[in-house]
Amino acid sequence: MIKINKLEIENVKRVKAVKVEPAQSGLTVVGGKNKQGKSSILDAIAWALGGNKYRPSQPERTGSAVPPYLHLVLSNGLIVERKGKNSDLKVIDPNGQKGGQQLLDSFVEELAIDLPKFMNASSKEKANILLRIIGVGQQLAELELKENDVYNRRHAIGQIADQKAKFAKEQPYHPDAPKEPVSASELIRQQQEILARNGENQRKRQRVTQIQAAHAQQYQEIERLRALLDEANSKYEILSADLATAKKDAIDLHDESTAELEANIRQIDEINRKVRANLDKDKAETDANEYRQQYDVLTTEINAVRQQKTDLLTNANLPLPGLSVEDGELTYNGQRWDNMSGAEQLKVSTAIVRRLKPNCGFILLDKLEQMDLDTLKEFGEWLEQEGLQAIATRVSTGEECSIIIEDGYVAGQEGIQIQQPPGEIDPGPTWGGSTTWKAGEF
After folding, report:
1. Name one Pfam family in it (predicted).
2. Domain limits, the chain
3. Does 3.40.30.10 match the CATH number of domain 4-108+357-410?
4. Over the stretch 172-225, which tens digit does the pLDDT of each residue have?
5. Which of 45, 159, 182, 357 is in the most buried spot, having the most CB atoms within 10 Å?
6. Is there a contact between 24 and 74 (Cβ–Cβ < 8 Å)?
7. What's the pTM?
8. φ, ψ for residue 40 (rounded to 5)?
9. Taking Cα atoms as reference points, which of 118, 94, 133, 115 lies closest to residue 46?
10. What single string gives the DSSP state of each residue in 77-137?
């Protein structure tokens, strides 16, 4: 990974002259009070490495007659300079070959020098950056579309099931009603059959009366017509036998009542209303159960899709353990961005930015006063563990600060000159060698 070994900055924004050798891993905290030049150092590094789109709108320090000067030595041996009236860029590799911004862009990650751009992005944008660098964005998007489709179908099925269940619950139930609607024509048919049987009974009763009359008349005929006694006796015996048979047939006869059928015919509308109500209730309960079964099937399908998403992210090469994407948003240890602590947000941002360009081994962080000392220490230890270099600013003059900026200088380097005035002799190499810095030197 490429890191910043040394940097010299002069006359950029509030910086007068600064020389710094950042720690190769962990935090280099640039402390100081407000308006002393802390953020100007980060802005200068971003300009030096990121190109003119990071050039400050007024780069020259107010009151300075000397143009800005930027000199960075990177761990891969590259020397990056901006100097002169137009602050032209010069990039020199260890072999003396010259390069330009394109060479820097090949390994300098834009978000590493502009971390707030990532941290201020929306949750969706952060998630998309993560998915892009681990190569599962398209697959996850397809799974999320599938999940949303199944979820919407399940939601619709659930609403229908609830409506059916509510309808069934509101319907009255009549336990005394028959299972099927009553037919008026069937009741009338039954009534007609009973009336026919009753008519037959009446006919038989009338026959008894007729035979009895004939029997009496014939007896009189016996008395009156003794001459025809034998014939009359024969007829009488026959009639006696017939009478006995008729009486036997009629003795156990009883008429059936049509009152119940007549009542049913009168109440058929009410009976059928109850039957239909029962059938509606049964149908609604059956429908509700069927929709609930469909709902459960879709729930199983949703869970399967979600498991596929989980497996996809679990098996992906994530830049930080605990990172994930849920519902299209970045999460860390189950927490969404707005629920993460400031240290967690910085850790997540740093890990993702690092993965964007693995060769870029440094980041710039402004305004670390949001962290307490314990959190700052924890974050620094994590950076060291990951072998990452961070140059950060903090409104503080405490022991946690690597250097203190006062009025545009590093405390202890006041009055240092980096660019040599015309006519003076260069005292020797800027870095290393036997050169000894006088008062205010680095």
Report:
1. AAA_23
2. 4-108+357-410, 184-278
3. no
4. 888 888 878 877 887 788 888 888 888 888 888 888 888 888 888 877 777 777
5. 45
6. no
7. 0.62
8. -60, -35
9. 115
10. S-EEEEETTTTEEEEE-TTS-EE-HHHHHTT--HHHH-HHHHHTS-HHHHHHHHHHHHT-H
